[in-house]
Amino acid sequence: MNDAFKATGIKAAVTAMALATPLFATPAHAVMKDIKFHVVQGSYHQPVTMEMKHNGSKWVWANKSATYPIKIKIKIKTVGNKFSSAGIFVHESNMYLWKMAQGYRTRNYEKLVPASVGKPMLSPLQGKARALCDVFGGSKKTVRDMNIDAVLSAYHSANVCGYKGKLPIKVVCQAKQPKRAKIDLKVSKLKLYTVPARPKCGQPVRLVTEVHTNKPGKVNFMLYRHDGAKQAASLKTGKAGKGYAKRWAKTYTFKKSTKRKYMVVLKGHPLSTSWVPLNVNCGVKGSAKAAGLKK
């Protein structure tokens, strides 16, 4: 195939002739009688389709992996010299939709030819498809036609004839999903308790804060001790049964008799526990003096 069949050659030749009419004039020794094409459409032919979905901020191309086999009816007739090459070029995609086989020469080409349209050809058209959905897309599914210019060019000697046709594409703007109202994180239950419920001298005891929420999220709180000591802490609730919950705990070991009270106050939520006692009896030799909070 000669160099004139390259994309740059087509662009230069077609631009020079401005595509004012479907048929371009040629020298007398190679008269073009007819040149045209169309993509076959109908109930037996699946149309090339770009499915667009709205992601909340913009329309995005959803079926990028789809490939569409199509049929193209092509008719080229010349009088005089045979033409040696022909092709249908889609300028917006910068690629050929169809090319005639190399080395084939004829004065009469009239065939139904197969072609394939997929991601390489459709990717540059995303902007146009998005613009259509910006205008026509909404709460209901909408289908719009997007016809892309395509040029059939035939070459013989140093001359070129061209016909401007269309590559029909269906743009499907899927229905926009309604925006979901933001749900604030709410604490439905708050507990503070010890494990075991009756601590024993010299054995570990866990002070447990248990939080239940309406959705997963972070909860900040303060742990207070009756003598004024306090500690800031937080937890993140996750799926637990039919709801969302999380436990946070501190572990103590007392070797002396101890009497304490603890309370949890949530930050940003109108909930707090009552004072919960943590009492350990180590006998008459033990001391009632409270130890400090462990870090």
- Supply Rg: 39 Å
What value does the average pLDDT take? 86
Terminal Cα span: 82 Å
Mass-distribution shape: rod-shaped
Instruction: Please tally the helical runs, counting DSSP H or I stretches of 4 or more residues.
Output: 3
Number of strands: 16
Low-confidence stretches: 1-28, 286-295
Oligomer: single chain
Quote the beta fraction. Answer: over 45%
Lateral arrangement of strands in the main beta sheet: 10-11-14-13-12-15-16
Helix content: under 10%
Please tell me about this protein's structure.
With 295 residues, this protein is mostly beta strands. The protein contains three helices and 16 strands. It has helices at 7-17, 119-122, 126-136, and strands at residues 30-39, 48-54, 59-61, 68-80, 85-90, 95-99, 108-117, 142-156, 159-173, 187-195, 204-213, 217-225, 230-240, 243-253, 258-266, 276-280. The strands form three sheets. Strands 10-11-14-13-12-15-16 form a seven-stranded antiparallel sheet, with no helix packed on it. Strand 12 (217-225) and strand 13 (230-240) form a beta hairpin. Residues 1-28 and 286-295 have low confidence and may be disordered.
